[in-house]
Design a protein that fits this description.
Blueprint: E1 16-22, H1 29-45, E2 50-52, H2 66-69, E3 71-72, H3 84-96, E4 99-101, E5 105-109, E6 116-124, E7 130-135, E8 141-144, E9 148-151, E10 164-167, E11 171-175, H4 184-192, E12 195-201, H5 208-224, E13 227-231, E14 248-250, E15 256-259, E16 265-271, H6 273-282, H7 285-288, H8 295-299
Parallel strand pairs: 1-2, 2-4, 3-5, 11-12, 12-13
Antiparallel strand pairs: 1-16, 4-6, 5-6, 6-7, 8-9, 10-11, 13-14, 14-15
Helix pairs in contact: 1-3, 4-5
Bound molecules: ligand LYUYDEPV.
Ligand LYUYDEPV binds near residues 55, 140, 179, 203 and 205.
Length: about 300
């Protein structure tokens, strides 16, 4: 007995070329922003119309850095003084005429002495307008003795909503950040609400990267029969955090169609609705779900606001 509703079709009105910019960033924010601009323009020059930057692309990644690099994004739009990164991203999206998932940046909210910090991804349209903001929902707190201990929650506050973004003329994407990829629930709800691609700016490390990065991307694509993109910073062995790199794009059959090594590069792929539809037709799990057996999953009690733009 099939009890599910099938996601809206077609999920992607026309093909879109997605590029992940595996950016090399350092400690100089202005230089990082200028370099990101060059790379976004380079991606656009080879035909990309949806470009993704990595997690914390404007700063080094680490709890010690979040407060000093944080920018205030509210009220939206922020002034140039409040958020140079917001304005740089908006300008590069407009200059390159692309949809831009602007990796993530450390965000500060609140008064001095009572500030909260978030890991936040901003998505802009080809006219430079902000389309959505995602605050990392699942903070990266892990402890693998002798390998890696990381506690984002020592500094950061978690976001509390799923982020879906409608790209006019194309369809719906979902944006989440790095550790969020480990939570299939978020991905499943995004896909069931019509996202054709799940996009994760991320920065896995040299312990979990080789073990799980590819698997997580493939698992989310296989479960949801949609595209998945993971975009990492380039590896810098002189930094305090060593990113895995290996930015990649996975197709709806869970095949990794492009994958970077560890150094700075751009990987791209054309996303096509036909591949999603073919996968869902050939392996029809979207219509075979048994929500009568697992009704709590169907309730989808996660908070969801649309449009997902900061007030
Ligand atoms: N920046 C992150 O959220 C890292 C996540 C990660 O490395 C993992 O294994 O998960």
């Amino acid at each position: 007995m099939a009890t599910s509703s099938t996601p809206p079709s077609p999920v992607l009105k026309k093909p879109i070329k997605l590029a992940c910019v595996q950016l090399a960033s350092g400690g100089d924010k202005a230089a990082n922003l200028a370099h990101a601009r060059d790379k976004v323009l380079e991606a656009a020059s080879v035909g990309a119309n949806l470009v993704v930057l990595p997690e914390c692309f404007n700063s080094p990644y680490g709890c010690d850095y979040f407060p000093s690099y944080a920018e205030s994004l509210l009220p939206s739009p922020p002034s140039r003084e409040q958020s140079p990164s917001f304005h740089a991203l908006s300008s590069m999206a407009a200059e390159a005429k692309v949809f831009l998932v602007g990796g993530s940046i450390p965000e500060a909210e609140g008064e001095e002495g009572a500030k909260k910090y978030y890991n936040t991804s901003l998505t802009f349209g080809p006219d430079g307008a902000l389309l959505a903001s995602h605050r990392k929902v699942h903070l990266f707190d892990i402890d693998i003795p002798g390998k890696i201990t990381f506690r984002e929650s020592d500094v950061l506050t978690a976001g509390n909503k799923l982020t879906l973004v409608d790209l006019p003329g194309y369809g719906r994407i979902a944006v989440a950040i790095c550790y969020d990829v480990r939570f299939p629930e978020l991905a499943m709800i995004a896909a069931r609400r019509g996202a054709f691609v799940l996009i994760y700016p991320g920065a896995f490390n040299l312990t979990t990267g080789p073990l799980h990065w590819r698997l997580q991307g493939q698992a989310r694509a296989m479960d949801n029969q949609c595209y998945v993109a993971l975009c990492s910073p380039a590896r810098d062995m002189s930094a305090t955090y060593h990113a895995w790199g290996h930015s990649l794009i996975v197709d709806p059959m869970a095949q990794v169609v492009v994958e970077a090594e560890e150094s700075e590069t751009i990987v791209s792929w054309e996303l096509d609705s036909a591949k999603i539809e073919e996968t869902r037709k050939n392996i029809p799990i979207t219509s075979q779900r048994r929500f009568d057996v697992y009704p709590d999953v169907n309730e989808g009690k996660i908070r969801f606001d649309e449009p997902n733009v900061p007030k």
